[in-house]
User: Fold this.
Amino acid sequence: MTIPSVQMNDGRMIPQIGLGTWPLKDDDAPAVIVTAIEAGFRHIDTAFRYGNQKGVGQGIRDSGIDRAALFITTKLDGEHQGGDKAVAGLDDCLRQLGTEYVDLLLIHWPIPARGEFVSTWQTYERLQASGKVRSIGVSNFKPAHLEHLAAQTNVVPATNQIQLSPRITRTDHVAYDAAHGIVTVSWSPLGQGSDLLQDGVLAKIAARHDKTPAQIVLRWNIELGLVPIPKSANKQRIAENLDIFDFGLSAAEVAAISALDTGAEKRVDSDVDGH
Ligand code: A2P
Assistant:
C-alpha cells in the first residue's frame, strides 16, 4: 500500500494520513504505535500537552522502524509561548520522544489574548533553522490569527491543524489555508466518538463502495486535499483507517458528505477568541 503525500510550502512532504494520539497515555501508547507502524502508518501526531510523548517514542523504538521513514508532529502550547520558551519546550519534546528532530512543530493554540503567538512563531523560525525541526506550522488558528501572523512575520505556516469533520467542515478556513499555501490537517476527523459514523448518508455511500462510514469520512478528506489524523487504539480499526486508497468518491458524494455540516463548532476553552 502506498500512502500519498502532500507537498508543504517549504518543499517538504507530509503523508496524507496520520495517526492521532490523543487521548492515549504513556502506558498505552507503545503498543498502539507499534500496531500503527506495522499497519503502515508513517505519520504520527502528538503534543506536549497529551502527556504521551515518552510512550510514543518508546513505541517508535519498539517498532524497529528507521527514524527517517517516519513523519512525527508535536505541538507546544501556552506554557511554551512567549520569549524563547519554545526552545526549551522543543528540547523537552525531543528528549521525551527520544529523537534528534521532529518533522513538524506546531503552535498548539493561538491564545490571542496572550498576544504571544507572533513572538513564539519567530522562535519557531529560528528552531527550523537549527535543524531540530524540519517544518513549522500552527494549530487551531482562525483566518484572523493567520492574517495577523502574516503581517508580522516572514514564514507562512506549513500546516494549520484544525478540528474538521463532515459535521464541522469549516469551508472558509480551508479556503483561506489553500489560498495561502497552508496544508489543512483535520483533527478528530471521525467526530471524536460522536454518532457521526451512524449517519445514514455515510452508511449509504459506504455500502455502495463496500467500505465503512469511517473509511468514507477519511476518503472525503483525501478528495478535498486534507490530511486527516484519526485516532484509534484498536488494531482492526487502525488497519481499516489506512485502507482508503483503493477507491474514490464522486463529486456528488463529496458534496453530499460536505452537506452534513451543522454549522456548529465544538467549543474548546482555548479556542475561544480572547481566551
Ligand atoms: P478506538 O480508539 O477504540 O478505535 P477522532 O479521530 O475523530 O477523534 O475519533 C476517535 C474515536 O473514533 C475513538 O473513539 C476511536 O475509538 C474511534 N474510531 C477510530 N477509528 C474508527 C473506525 N474506523 N470506526 C469506528 N470508530 C473509530
The two ends are 43 Å apart (CA to CA).
